[in-house]
Specification:
heterodimer; A: mainly beta; B: mainly beta; four-stranded antiparallel β-sheet; 52% strand
Chain lengths: 111, 115
């Protein structure tokens, strides 16, 4: 599987936008970009995923670079409940649905 | 979204005993379920892929005789940690694939402590 690189941690103020970066320079054409987050002592939660075009849903937006070698998860207004570890994961479309988690970015949201 | 439930949420057992963890998809049928393990301050590690009606596929380094996985129905998969030892203490998380979207839905996790 292609590898992703994320900052270990980031900090944001409450009610401000947060941009969480992810580098995936070895991404292949059939790799989907998935984002999950994990709150303390809970299982991961799906956030968003995309292939080539930018994606929006009620939780977040996903901005994918034109060359697809990087992407950014955007939380439009961070709340205290958004404090979690955010994982950027590549999943090859023909390799089944198992996800291999990296270390992720630990997001701290301060009031 | 779809709901995946695990039971028990936490369990404490003595060394040498076996522990069974259940993973249920509550409102959808899951032909494939996945089991993960997470040690403190570490990321999730995929242990095995469980397909309904067939033997599980284990990741390299995961002992299939120690971590028994059964996926007898489309809504239930079980993980049994046999002859548990303190080093098996971990957070075990299951997930199931949603048929329509392909996204994975995760259970709440089961924390195992082996004394």
């Amino acid at each position: 599987d292609a590898k992703t690189t994320q900052p270990n941690s980031m900090e944001s103020n409450e009610e401000e936008p947060v941009h969480l970066p992810c580098n995936h320079s070895t991404i292949s054409g059939t790799d989907y970009i998935h984002w999950y987050r994990q709150l303390p002592s809970q299982g991961p939660e799906y956030v968003i995923h995309g292939l080539t075009s930018n994606v929006n849903n009620r939780m977040a937006s996903l901005a994918i670079a034109e060359d697809r070698k990087s992407s950014t998860l955007i939380l439009h207004r961070a709340t205290l409940r958004d404090a979690a570890v955010y994982y950027c994961i590549l999943r090859r479309s023909n390799s089944g649905y198992a996800l291999n988690f990296g270390k992720g970015t630990s997001l701290l949201v301060t009031p | 979204g779809a709901v995946v439930s695990q039971h028990p949420s936490w369990v404490i057992c003595k060394s040498g005993t076996s522990v069974k963890i259940e993973c249920r998809s509550l409102d959808f049928q899951a032909t494939t379920m996945f089991w993960y393990r997470q040690f403190p301050k570490q990321s999730l590690m995929l242990m095995a892929t469980s397909n309904e009606g067939s033997k599980a596929t284990y990741e390299q380094g995961v002992e299939k005789d120690k971590f028994l996985i059964n996926h007898a129905s489309l809504t239930l998969s079980t993980l049994t940690v046999t002859s548990a030892h303190p080093e098996d203490s971990s957070f075990y998380i299951c997930s199931a694939r949603g048929l329509d979207t392909g996204e994975l839905f995760f259970g709440e996790g089961s924390r195992l402590t082996v004394l």
